[in-house]
Amino acid sequence: MVAVFYVAVVAMLVAIGCELDWPAAAAALDALPLRAVLTAAACSAVCYALYAGYELLAARQVGVALPRGQVAAIGFASYACNLSLGAMLGALGLRLRLYTSRGIPAGAGVRLVAFNLLTNWSGYLLVLGAALLLMRTEPPPAWRVGAPVLQVLGGVLVVLAAGYAYACARARRRRWRLRGLAVELPTLRTALRQFALSVPAWLASAASLHALLPAADFDLLLVSLLGSAVIGLVVRVPAGLGVIEAVFLGALGGALGEGPVLASLLAYRCVHYLGPLVLGLLTFVLLDLAARRAAGSGRPAGPMRVRKAA
Q1: Measured between alpha carbons, how far is residue 127 from residues 52, 102, 167, 209 in Å?
Q2: Tally of domains in the chain
Q3: Cα dist from 120 to 58, 111, 135, whole Å
Q4: Domain membership flag for residue 11
Q5: Domain contains 42
Q6: Contact assessment for residue 123 and residue 98, using Cβ atoms and an 8 Å cutoff
Q7: What pLDDT is recorded for position 279?
Q8: Does the structure show a pLDDT above 80 at 65?
């Protein structure tokens, strides 16, 4: 059934692609100024640096005793592969391999993944909620919802994000077991650090695309990008291939033209997905080789323990 689903997705993407104005997209891509591409790359670099910060915060929460440089490198490689290749390979498989080869138990690696998810999506709720509440651009007809509905939804999301922070500050029960895995609610200080990392990460991702598509209103672009992230989770296509394009062509194609929007999205994929993927795979290979060399020499690649979280 999974194979049939992906075949159907590919067929749909091909059918949609055949209807797009590729010559106009090629011309618009060729006209993109180098300064815009470099600005987009800088914004994406900030985003991935914050992803590495997620990993450092998660390691502190879980109590993983590894050098900070190794933890940050694992976080970067994991997110670079996660965004392009999918969560099972990037978020889970790659992390577990790199951590277990350094003496960190698989259970601790899974807890790291869970905490990273919490960091990422708690910030998502706050950014999307605030963006919908403060949105001044009229929603495109393709969305089939008005501004009042979006503002109500935004308010709900902000309340949920605030509720998470409140629970971190006030909840009496702070630990649960989910399918044998211990889940612990962080402190309010840690939750605020999660927001301080994830909110600018989502904004930096949107800023990268906006540098390539400056004619778009930033609030509409931000909401569209955040919306496509959730749709990509539902459809489960690696890198949201086709999902981001469909969302943005529906939201902005009519006003800005298919060619410029598609060209900007293609450049964004190169800057925000493919470039980091190449660097992430290289980082993974280097980290894996370092662990193999340490194992071959009889030295541990890292501490053979998980210390108690501070």
Answers
A1: 19, 35, 19, 16
A2: 1
A3: 11, 14, 22
A4: no
A5: yes
A6: no
A7: 96
A8: yes
Using only the alpha carbons of the chain, give its radius of gyration.
21
Q: For residues 122 and 82, what is the distance between their CA atoms, to the nearest angstrom?
A: 18
Q: Is residue 164 part of a domain?
A: yes
**Residue range of the domain that includes 182:** 23-296
Q: Would you say residue 14 lies in a domain? A: no
Among 143, 271, 152, 166, which residue's Cα sits nearest to residue 211?
A: 271
Please give the Cα distance from 70 to 76 (Å, whole number): 10
pLDDT of 289: 93
Smallest Cα–Cα separation from 266: which of 258, 256, 254, 255? 258
Q: How far apart are CA 186 and CA 174, in angstroms?
A: 8
Structure confidence at residue 238 as a pLDDT band (50, 70, 90): low
* Cβ density class 200-219: b for 16+ within 10 Å, e for less: bbbbbbbbbbbbbbeebebe
